Amino acid sequence: MNKMRKGDAIIVIAGKDKGKRGTVLRRVGDDHVVVEGVNRVKKHVKPNPMKGQQGGIVEIEMPIQISNVALYNPSTQKADRVGFKTLDDGRKVRVFKANGEVVDA
Asked: Does residue 99 form part of some domain?
């Protein structure tokens, strides 16, 4: 079970975008995530008439190392670590380490 999933609210804790918040758009491999509005770079794109793609300079989000982001805890308004807990009915859920609240409501 992964500590970060698509759709999670995260906050950047290290790097050039430190302090920015966003949501996980997708996972790239085991140790990278693409976050909305974070790690944006300018990329030069060639035109592709077959796909109807126009050339030029576009801004896109690039993957960021998973160790540089943390889940955002809305109750404490801070970054928080994540642990796992097995509920009474046998389900395995993610919980915030600071207050023990379940992440997957």
From this structure: no
13 and 70 in contact (C-beta within 8 Å)? yes
Helices (H), 3-98: none
Please give the radius of gyration of the chain, using alpha carbons only, rounded to the nearest integer.
Answer: 17
d(CA 77, CA 58): 33
Coil/strand/helix, residue 68: helix
Instruction: Give dist(CA 46, CA 54) in Å, integer.
Output: 7
Report the number of distinct structural domains present in the chain.
1
Print the domain residue range for 18. Answer: 9-75
Between the CA atoms of 49, 26, 22 and 62, what dihedral angle is there, to the nearest 10 degrees?
-50
> Residues 63-82: pLDDT tens digits?
999 999 999 999 999 999 99
pTM of the predicted model, to two decimals? 0.82
